[in-house]
Design a protein that fits this description.
2,3-Dihydroxybiphenyl 1,2-Dioxygenase, domain 1; globular; 292 residues; alpha+beta
Length: 292
């Protein structure tokens, strides 16, 4: 049962604006423009009737891929504001940078927003952190740490239970890595997250290719929000996608570890089989099998 992480997805309101932002501010490059995709198979796998979708794949200089999803029909919906780090689901994209002020200025110049009030200093790691947002409000975490070169770091998920989420992602090839328990009511942490008194655990998990996900468990205050699959045309981070060699085997294993599947989304199209489900906290998971 082979599983390979493919990409992260983000629903956007303006394709040109988002391409400019991610290429000019964050060192991605366009690698595939799929053109407009529609028809009954696309409507079925996305669970969106009448869909006209224009996806574009970007790749970071370090390798990770980000799929921009621009919906011509039906239009994307939802607030274009940063989600709370207390809200279940996909939270942010995180980058180490060589100079946090230079990177923040690049974000401003490329159409993003810098939230200077979130700047905080993690004394143990000698790390400065600052939240910014893309043109649609997706959280972009900038981190500067002495001796750490600029690179893509990870994406974050707010979870109800790390113990429940970890076995699920182990079935997708991820294993526990660094673990940070920050339950002392630190002022700097409250400032970064804009949550007074926040106490949390950040469990990093990593696959064999170096792809990293942060499982974020907040102890206090309580988390909130739905733990169900978001619609793909809801603005913001949308899904995690994986290449697999056996859709049935991987789907069954993930279901046994707390995941769920939407049977109606499974389709076989020319060259590819697609199936959509969710992790224990409702994060959309897309399985893809290449057909030759």
């Amino acid at each position: 049962m082979a599983v390979t992480f493919s990409h992260r997805g983000v629903c956007i309101s303006d394709l040109a604006a988002s391409k400019r932002f991610y290429t000019e501010a964050l060192d991605f490059a366009e690698v595939i423009d799929y053109g407009v995709m529609d028809g009954p198979d696309m409507a079925q796998t996305t669970d969106i009737p009448g869909i006209r979708l224009h996806p574009v794949m970007l790749q970071h200089r370090d390798g990770p891929r980000l799929e921009l999803l621009h919906f011509e029909a039906p239009p994307a919906f939802g607030p274009r504001e940063r989600r709370s780090t207390l809200q279940y689901g996909l939270v942010h994209l995180s980058f180490y940078v060589d100079d946090i002020d230079v990177s923040a200025e690049r974000i401003r110049a490329a159409g993003g927003h810098v939230h200077e009030e979130t700047r905080g200093h993690y004394p143990e790691g000698r790390t400065t952190m600052l939240y910014c947002t893309d043109p649609d409000g997706v959280r972009i975490e900038l981190m500067h740490s002495e001796g750490v070169a600029g690179r893509f770091s990870h994406s974050g998920i707010c979870v109800d239970s790390i113990e429940a989420s970890l076995p699920y992602f182990q079935a997708l090839g991820f294993e526990p890595a660094e673990n940070y328990v920050l339950d002392g009511g630190y002022e700097w942490l409250a400032k970064v997250n804009e949550v007074p008194g926040i106490k949390l655990r950040a469990q990093m998990i990593r696959d064999g290719e170096g792809n990293t996900i942060e499982l974020l468990k907040v102890f206090d205050p309580p988390c909130f929000g739905q733990r169900e699959r978001r619609k793909l045309n809801q603005l913001g981070l949308t899904h995690l996608a994986f290449w697999v060699d056996d859709v049935d085997a991987v789907a069954a294993e993930l279901a046994a570890r707390g995941g769920s599947w939407a049977e109606q989304t499974r389709v076989v199209m020319p060259g590819i089989e697609l199936y959509h489900g969710a992790d224990p906290d409702g994060v959309r998971i897309e399985l893809m099998r290449a057909i030759r």
